[in-house]
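Section 5.1 Outputs to date
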Amino acid sequence: MKKQLVSKLAFSAILATSLVLVGCGGGGGDGEEKITVTTDADWVAYQDSNGEWHVLSNVSTTEDGNEVTTYSFKVKNKYGVAFYCVDNEEGQVYQLTKDDLSSVSYFCEDHATRYTVSGTFTNLDENSGGNVYIDSQSMMNMLSKSEVDNNWTVSDVPEGTWDIVGVEFTTDGDSITPTRAAINRNVEVNGDVTGQELTFAPNSLVGYAFNVTDGDAQGYGISFFVTKNNTVVMNGNKDKDETSGKWYRIQNIELIDGDVYVFIGANSDESKIRMESVDASTPPEGGWDGWNMNLNDITPLTSGSFDPNTKTISGLNYTPNPEGKVTNLVGYDISIDNDVDWNFAISKSWLGDGTSYTLPDFSGLDGFNNSWWFDNLESTSVDVELTAVMSDASLNNLLQPEVEIVGSFPLIKSATFEMVTQELQ
């Protein structure tokens, strides 16, 4: 379930990658304003408004020798940017406006320098195990632990300022129960780090119920604890066959402004997804007793259709439930996979009053290999998924640095976020 859920959150992952790596645009201005693109993709093109696509040429190298390159181009307001990564066999298209974003990044590879961080559990229970979490990428590391000196090591940690979170747990068959927690704050990682002691606080984890429903039907749920410095700890889950799952709240450890809990719920067929964030240091209204998420107020998406002959997606006229938690339609995500793997992020401001989108035809452009596209494919071999994206924050606000990435998994730390998906073929 979690892998499928991650794939359905591609839109926000793409947008977050654009911002975290480059910075927010803020758009507007006259027709002379440039859009800046930073990427290591093998092929890059742009479009002004709905005009012809043009292959981008090198402007300047920014890092890693010739691997990462900066491009720029001028647009009136609406624009598109397309990328293709040969090794990953993945393509990405953004359809945005200058008010959405004027700096866009897309990377095929991770260029962050990586280090090893190590230390000890100073009071790990003899019959317990320990996990350590550092940063937003190396989550869920089960660490090697000496039975004698309780050593732990996490490798492949990117450079940055991180919080190190330790979780003690006990096991009973397949059941894992967290028991105590520890947090080391503001650890600078700009080289290999040693000697980090994690001391578990007494009575520091308490379990609460976590439920997701869609009307009378049960759904999935995942819960995360995210520190101020964006270290991510998965702290709960719920299966669709369970009437209630469990998530763990940290206590007897000082939680600070910027620490949050993030709850993600999906209905049984994963066509509806909601993400909710709450300040970890301040009890929410109604207290911590359970976290119940009812997805029944998310209107299903049923209007989309795909014409394989014209390569047109229609039915982009989704209207959120005005009585639901989120009513602001941010845009659409179109995912195409199977024999080809492309993703299209379309902002509502780019789409305007339009209700359809025709996939661009890149054949004939310099450097484009038609095997990357639909050249010799039968329509039945292509799977198309349409997702409408809603948030209580504007698209511009969603692209602020409080959006962080866990691999390809987005965590939006300050906004309620919803997606509703329809399989088109």
